[in-house]
Amino acid sequence: MKAFSITLQAAALAAACLAGAPAMAQHAGAEHAQHGAAAASAETTEGEVKKVDKASGKLTIKHGELKNLGMGAMTMVFRAKDTAMLDQVKAGDKIRFTAENVNGALTVTTLEVVQ
Predict the structure, then answer these.
(1) What is the DSSP letter of 75?
(2) Is there a contact between 76 and 59 (Cβ–Cβ < 8 Å)?
(3) Which residue ranges make up each domain of the chain?
């Protein structure tokens, strides 16, 4: 009877492990999906600088779709992650940039002037 009890416990343990396998696979899939979201956040967007406000550390940009933020094309104000970016551009410059939501503020995190 003791051997039967041990066998039954082993079978229950094996069943519990197998039952958890799909959940673990789903978790791993979720991690890969999050990685994909991070990659999407790195996408650059083209735009045109409309205004540079060095005093407030902000840029006004007319831009294309910002897929990582779920926003369509429009003109809007962004914070500059690094105020040195503001010295690189002037109104009328065509740019390629990355914008992200940093602590609730839409922020330009990368910026390059397009010739």
Answers:
(1) E
(2) no
(3) 1-41, 45-113
Token pair of 92 as six digits:
């009328």
pTM of the model: 0.65
Contacts 24+ apart (CB under 8 A), 82-91: 83/54, 83/57, 85/59, 85/111, 86/52, 86/53, 86/54, 86/57, 86/59, 87/54, 88/113, 89/49, 89/52, 89/59, 89/113, 90/49, 90/52, 91/49, 91/50, 91/51, 91/52
Which phi and psi angles does 67 have, rounded to 5°? Answer: -60, -40
Dist CA 59 CA 88 (whole Å): 11
Alpha helices in 1-115 (DSSP H): 2-41
**Which fold, 45-113?**
OB fold (Dihydrolipoamide Acetyltransferase, E2P) (2.40.50)
The pLDDT tens digits of the residues spanning 50-95 come to: 999 999 999 999 999 999 999 999 999 999 999 999 999 999 999 9
